Each structure stands twice: as C-alpha cells, then as structure tokens.
Amino acid sequence: MNEQFWLVVQYPMKSPKGNQRDCWLRDKVMEYLEITLGEANLGYVDGFDMGKCISDPNQYALNLFCVVTDEERSIALIKRILRESRLDYTRIKIATMPFGEEGTYTLKYAAKKGDNGFSL
C-alpha cells in the first residue's frame, strides 16, 4: 500500500503564540508521534504551525502535521498514544487529506461530541 495521507492533530490555543504549556505540549506530542509512527512503520512527523486559524482569525490553534501510509491505523494509534500519555487527548481534532493533492482536510476525529467543523 503506497498511498500516503497528510494527517493533522490540532489543539486549540488561547493566544497566537501560545503559552509555555502549549510549547511544551507541541514538543512532547511531536516526540511521541515521531517515535510511535516510526516504530509502527506508519509514517513520520513533518512539522507544525501555531497561530491564527485561517477560517476564523479570532481562533488560535497548534497544528501538528504528519505523513502517514495507513489512515485508519495511524488515527487509532495516535488517539491511543495521546490518551495513554495524558497529552490533552480531550482537546484534539484529527483530520486527513490525500498526500500530494491540493484540497481540504476531512475531520476524522473530534474529542468533543458534536464538534464537526475543521479548518487550519
């Protein structure tokens, strides 16, 4: 299976640059995802951005970008790792988009029930 996907894990923030906790969370989540995706041969972390959301400049987010080969297994693994590691699992959204295509991300998981909107 050579198909790849962009996968983004999104956390809400209260300010454009985030606070000390947001920066710590960014570093820890990136570290855990890099290790677990690599060990499972599912993909890698490609980077992050922090700041204003495109769809609503009054909202701020931390976005962690990954490239994965198996969408469903990667989502399940990421959810499990963030929950077990207590890395603010109750605040995340996970969305995917086919790799190499211009388009929009499709929300695959939101920790808050009824929250079905996603934008970078």
Would you kindly provide a written description of the structure presented here, covering whatever features stand out?
This protein is an alpha+beta fold and 120 residues long. The protein has a single domain (5-110), classed as Alpha-Beta Plaits (2-Layer Sandwich). Helix content is 28%, strand content 32%. It has helices at 20-39, 71-84, and strands spanning 5-13, 43-52, 60-68, 93-98, 106-110. A hairpin with a 7-residue loop joins strand 4 and strand 5 (106-110). Helix 1 crosses helix 2. The longest helix is centred in the first third of the chain and has 20 residues, at 20-39.
Which structural traits does this protein have?
single chain; 120 residues; alpha+beta; Alpha-Beta Plaits; five-stranded antiparallel β-sheet; 2 helices; 5 strands; 28% helix; 32% strand; globular
